[in-house]
Write a structure and sequence with these properties.
GO biological process, one term: SCF complex assembly
Distance between the termini: 65 Å
Helix content: 55-70%
Keywords: Repeat, Ubl conjugation pathway
Strand content: under 5%
Organism: Sugiyamaella lignohabitans
Pfam family, one: TIP120
Number of helices: 64
Strand order of the largest sheet: 1-2
Number of strands: 4
Protein name: TATA-binding protein interacting (TIP20) domain-containing protein
Shape: globular
Length: 1233
């Protein structure tokens, strides 16, 4: 009985863990179930006979119990009580410190899962245990376990782990990898002296000892793996230990105790080999390469010299390559140091490594190195742009000044190409590996732009050989061909293009549609580059292939459409014979009847007609094209109508032949366009269509009725809304000028003048107005000025001058007309009358603004005559008119010829700074500002509430001048940042902010190193300046993110600080019997949150990770205070969370944040608005609900996508996911339904 009982008990124990795990893994994840499981299972794991199953002497039972604990924490960790968490931590630490080696690894895994639920006190206990253990332990197995624990903690709790990171990294490097001040002492010392042979013998003996010690190899492997994880925390985390990490990676990348070799001599051999290569050896043929005799593309293949079945050192080389790749990915700002130390051993192992897994990892690492050195990478995008050719003579051996691209080109390009081509032709490599190798070559071409061209020749010859024997690689090869075409210079492409054409043609004729599509993409790249660089190579061999594919009915529609597009661009941008033009053009014309290819054919017609190299298309083709395109203007598809108008414009832009048929066709299409334009005016006006119609009619005025064109022009000007007037202004004025020029009837021309001269009401400014008036009125004034100047009606000008002089009823209208006439015709009369009216205190602000801008228009066309007098008047201007004088200067700076402005730039600059105090003290100019901000595009509402209108106008002038001469004026702006006057600092900041919307390479290069000095005014003592600085930061993120990225580590802490509620800015206001709290810092906080939203919306996931501080953003800003702040900030916080979930899901759901989000969102959705509340309260609540729903959907979609991809390693416990799923289903989906 007893024996039977024992037997049953043993069987029960062996089955029990499986049963418990099955329950844990399959039960529904709810809080109640989680509590039941935790209370039922955990006590049995800790207590009972033999101190609980986890501490049982039976290793099998302990492992099973540890698996139970791991599954329980994974699914229900958030439901375990605080007491049980502490007890679990103690038990796990006891196991990690114990003698049972098998269970330790799983205990480390369990501790990594448990870490997120530890309180700060227990976390400190854990890190203290880790540091003490690494410091005191000398047992290799125990050190390996502790180092693995450090890596797992760094991955699971990166934010908390960063505080204890430095001592842990030091201990890993010192104890795990035997690195001291002299270098790596666990093997060959990386800093050894070559003269000491005895030391070398000792080092080699150490290598043998290390290679024959499995525990030591495991310790090294764990150390490298943990360092890889820690490097992923970013540069700030490993800044002080980076040199050691690079040395470790370089050492273990080449670590192979089976090879006795001096690595320094090896590196020298690489350089010597590269320098001694004879460029004339390029004639080696690749055809028939079967691995027989050695060629320039082969690497020594003596397997026996390296074979050792018992050797496990390859694991260290593989992890070292992973570590090197992590350094390149997460610390790209230190690329020169990384390249100088890690590229030599990587290239060496790329050439000699025989272990396939290591070689694959080395190839992957090299790919990351090349990506980091691309122009779009963080290192080069954040550096000054420069011409590499001017630095070729620099000493690139110096890591401080080393250019990674030059280092790669000079020392390793030849070997990389040689090894890659040899591997590419190896019959033992799989197609997948060959595809990866082709990608390596493509990255090299992209990074180095094929310098020197001799290496490109080798690549091209190899591709020609492979294209005939490896059809499975055609897509990869075509992508490489495209990269070569984009990277080569004109002369290089001229030499290599005949060979590349063979591959392209082969790809076009390929039956597989993806290959054909890739080849057509190459053609599109080639056509653009071929025409732009004027390459003297005949590429007409492509034409028959393009025509065949465009004709083919067996191809899918997308590929055929691409063929039609390529054919159109090919004809448009290549100087072909007449017969070839006719063949291709006729085919495209015929394809207008194919509905699926119609739009592409229309676009191709537009390309051909506008092609600069098409000497003369046939008149018959022009006539047929116009007929077909005219028929599409009645189609319901707006895209097709706009495309047809664009094509008609391209056709009419050409110089048509004078034969009768063509003239008649142009007259017919002109009438069709006129009718179409009138129909647009009678329906909802389409600004884009009206703009195109006006441009077409401008070309066709000689072929149509001038009176009808004039009638349409006047009708458009009179009926156009202010918004449409902004978009069609240039085109409709061009049409009016053409009508006036071709008008032979003086009476008709006078009628046009009288119609436009009709006085118009000049009201307040509308969007886009530069002079404080309605845009449609402004357009009418411009049109009247065109009629006066083009129609030789200068005698009409005195009538407007009389109205101004006599203060007539239509004063503002006359001022507008005079201003635009002066802009077109040099004005020579005195402006004294206008200045008198400007200083007339009886005038309203709108009238003064119109006067100021009219003066600016007149002076901008005659700077030498009028500007000196204006600058004198600016110095003498009173506080009530100085902003008007600044309006005049702004119009001059923005509208005058660049040469004229540059001649007076110093005088203008000095006058502006002299006037700054007067402008700031005046406190006026807001009306003028409202009349002109839209055109300037520099003043958001937040800034307008802080800075006076005069300051902002002055800031725009300073900004424009600094763009004209940045070398002189930008440093002067920087100096003014130290001014004690807030008005000076804010004006300088606004001036620089204005320039963010401009694109000038020289200016950007000079601004790059000092941009943070301007934006650091976020830390200014003045609240208003801080708000303007935040607004400038938003603009910089939008327009100059490549300049801003290197400085974000300095700026983000300042930005995050502005999101906190500042109690010193909150005060109580007595309103009758009631007291009301006023938060003067609310607008500042809102601007800070808008800046954060702009940041997370503009930067991609990679850039966000490189910027760092996402954990602080989520914990302190969004979840810490954002969701409990005022309404607008709550809305922005929801939007920020949703955006971050789409780009950095692991950050959003880590460390219990998903539970916090669920709780906060539930609380916000549960708010009930009182029935008697005002309408705005209901609207605010509905807005919060909408944004929570949108944010929740983004989070849920990101989680679902991660699960579907199998990327569930960083997901929270099943209980949290279950809680989220329940919330999403019941609170979000149900509410939205």
């Amino acid at each position: 009985m007893a024996a039977g009982s024992t037997e049953v008990s043993s069987g029960t124990i062996s089955i029990l863990p499986m049963a418990i795990r099955s329950v844990i893994l399959n039960v529904t994840a709810t809080p109640s179930v989680a509590h039941i499981l935790a209370e039922s299972i955990l006590p049995g794991l800790y207590t009972g006979s033999n101190s609980g199953l986890l501490l049982n002497n039976n290793s099998e039972h302990s492992l099973d119990s540890m698996d139970i604990l791991i599954d329980l924490i994974k699914r229900f960790g958030s439901s375990i009580s605080a007491a049980e968490i502490v007890k679990t931590e103690n038990v796990l630490l006891q196991i990690i410190s114990g003698e049972q080696g098998i269970i330790k690894k799983r205990a480390v895994t369990a501790m990594g899962l448990l870490a997120r639920y530890l309180t700060d006190k227990n976390w400190e206990k854990l890190t203290a245990y880790l540091i003490d253990g690494l410091t005191e332990s000398s047992d290799l197995s125990q050190l390996r376990i502790l180092i693995q624990l450090a890596g797992i903690l760094a991955r699971s709790e990166p934010t908390r782990f960063k505080n204890d990171l430095r001592p842990v990294i030091d201990l890993i490097i010192r104890k795990g990898l035997d690195v001291n001040d002299e270098g790596i002492t666990g093997g060959r010392n990386v800093h050894r002296d070559e003269d000491f042979d005895d030391e070398e013998e000792e080092d080699n003996a150490d290598d043998d000892e290390e290679a024959n010690n499995p525990e030591l190899l495991d310790l090294r492997e764990a150390s490298l793996a943990s360092l890889e994880i820690i490097v992923g925390l970013g540069y700030q985390a490993v800044e002080t230990q980076l040199n050691d990490i690079l040395a470790i990676s370089a050492y273990y990348i080449k670590y192979n105790p089976n090879i006795i070799d001096d690595e320094d001599d090896q590196d020298e051999d690489i350089d010597d080999e590269d320098e001694d290569i004879d460029d004339n050896d390029d004639d080696v043929e690749m055809e028939g390469h079967d691995g027989g005799e050695d060629s320039e593309f082969e690497v020594s293949d003596d397997e026996d010299a390296f074979s050792d079945d018992d050797d496990q050192s390859w694991k260290l080389r593989r992890y070292a390559a992973k570590l090197a790749a992590a350094v390149a990915i997460y610390i790209p700002t230190q690329l020169p140091r990384i390249y100088s130390q890690l590229l030599p051993p990587l290239v060496s192992m790329y050439a000699s490594e025989k272990e396939s897994t290591v070689k694959t990892e080395v190839i992957s690492c090299l790919s990351e190195f090349f990506k980091a050195a691309s122009d779009k990478g963080l290192y080069y995008s954040s550096k000054l742009s420069s011409n590499i050719a001017t630095r070729r003579s620099s000493d690139i051996s110096m890591a401080t000044d080393m250019d990674p691209k030059l280092f790669l080109e000079r020392h390793y390009l030849r070997k990389l190409v040689r090894v890659s081509l040899s591997e590419l032709h190896s019959s033992t490599n799989t197609v997948i590996l060959q595809s990866i190798l082709t990608g390596i070559l493509g990255n090299l071409v992209s990074v180095l732009h094929t310098r020197p061209s001799i290496q490109t020749s080798k690549i091209i010859r190899s591709l020609i050989s492979l294209s005939k024997t490896q059809p499975g690689l055609m897509i990869d090869m075509l992508q490489l061909v495209s990269g070569i075409i984009r990277a080569q210079t004109t002369q290089e492409l001229t030499d290599s293009l005949p060979q590349l054409l063979e591959i392209i043609v082969l790809g076009i004729y390929d039956k597989y549609y993806k290959v054909c599509g890739a080849a057509l993409d190459v053609v599109l790249d080639l056509v653009a580059i071929h025409s732009d660089q004027s390459i003297k190579v005949d590429i007409s061999v492509l034409l028959p292939a393009l025509i065949e594919k465009a004709k083919s009915t067996s191809l899918d529609l997308d590929t055929r459409s691409k063929a039609v597009k390529a054919l159109g661009q090919f004809i448009a941008k290549n100087d072909l014979s007449g017969s070839n033009i006719d063949t291709g053009c006729k085919l495209i014309l015929d394809l207008l009847n194919n509905e699926g290819l119609r739009l592409t054919s229309v676009e191709s017609i537009s390309e051909i007609a506008s092609g600069a190299t098409v000497r003369q298309v046939s008149s018959k083709w022009i006539i047929s094209s116009l007929e077909g395109l005219g028929n599409f203007l009645n189609q319901s598809s707006r895209t097709l109508r706009i495309g047809s108008l664009n094509a008609i414009l391209s056709v009419t832009n050409r110089q048509p032949s004078s034969d009768q048929a063509t003239v008649q066709a142009l007259a017919n299409i002109g009438q069709i366009i006129l009718n179409h334009g009138k129909s647009i005016l009678t329906s909802s006006p389409d600004a884009v269509a009206l703009d195109l119609v006006s441009k077409i009619l401008t070309n066709l005025v000689p072929f149509i009725s001038v009176s009808e064109a004039s009638e349409f022009t006047i009708q458009t000007i009179n009926q156009t809304s202010s918004q449409t007037a902004v978009q069609i202004s240039d085109s409709i004025l061009g049409l009016l000028a053409a009508v006036v020029q071709h008008s032979t009837d003086a009476a008709a021309l006078n009628a046009v003048y009288e119609e436009l001269c009709r006085p118009r009401h000049v009201a307040s400014a509308s969007a886009g107005s530069s002079i404080g008036t309605n845009q449609n009125v402004e357009l009418a004034a411009k049109a009247l000025a065109v009629v006066i100047t083009e129609g030789q009606m200068v005698d009409k000008i005195p009538s407007f001058e009389t109205v101004v002089a006599q203060n007539g009823e239509d004063l503002k209208w006359s001022l507008l007309v005079l201003g635009y006439v002066g802009k077109l015709l040099p004005y020579t009369t005195s402006l004294e009358v206008l200045y008198d009216e400007l200083n007339n205190n009886a005038r309203d602000e709108i009238t003064k603004t119109v006067i100021a801008n009219s003066l600016g228009l007149i002076i901008s066309n005659n700077v030498n005559n009028y500007l000196p007098d204006l600058l004198n008047r600016l110095k003498a201007a009173g506080s009530n008119t100085i902003h008007l004088h600044l309006l005049i200067i702004r119009e001059i700076v923005s509208g005058a010829k660049t040469a004229d402005v540059e001649a007076y730039s110093d005088d203008i600059w000095n006058s502006l700074f002299t006037s700054l105090d007067a402008v700031s003290s005046s406190g006026i100019g807001k009306v003028a500002l409202a009349a002109s901000t839209a055109a300037a595009g520099i003043v958001p509402n937040a800034e307008a509430s802080v800075v006076s209108g005069g300051d902002l106008i002055l800031a725009e002038c300073l900004g424009r001048l600094s763009i004209l001469n940045p070398r002189v004026f930008l440093p002067q702006l920087q100096v003014q940042l130290a001014s004690e006057k807030p008005s000076v600092r804010v004006t300088v900041l606004s001036a620089v902010k204005f320039t963010f919307g401009q694109s000038h390479d020289t200016y950007d290069d000079l601004l790059r190193p000092i941009i943070a000095d301007f934006l650091a005014l976020v830390d200014d003592d003045d609240t208003g300046i801080r708000q303007v600085a935040l607004s400038a930061l938003v603009s910089a993120i939008h327009n100059k993110s490549h300049l801003l990225l290197p400085h974000l580590a300095r700026l983000l802490p300042l930005l995050y600080r502005e999101t906190r509620i500042n109690t010193s800015l909150i005060h109580t206001v007595q309103m009758g019997p009631f007291k009301h709290k006023v938060d003067n810092g609310l607008e500042l906080r809102k601007t800070a949150y808008e800046t954060i939203y702009t940041l997370v919306s503009t930067l991609n996931a990679e850039r966000l990770q490189s910027v760092g501080m996402i954990d602080e953003l989520l914990d302190q800003v969004v979840l810490g205070s954002g969701l409990s702040d005022e309404h607008d900030i709550k809305v922005l916080s929801c939007v920020i969370i949703g955006r971050l979930a789409s780009t950095c899901l692991s950050k959003v759901i880590a460390a219990g944040r998903l539970h916090q989000i669920t709780t906060r969102y539930t609380t916000l959705l549960g708010v009930v608005v009182k029935e008697n509340a005002i309408k705005q309260e209901f609207e605010k609540h509905n807005e919060i609900v909408r944004n929570i729903e949108r944010s929740s959907t983004q989070i849920n979609d990101a989680i679902s996508q991660a699960i579907s991809k199998g990327d569930a390693s960083n997901l929270p416990s099943d209980l949290e996911l279950g809680e989220w799923e329940s919330f999403y289903r019941t609170k979000v989906l149900k509410k939205s339904v």
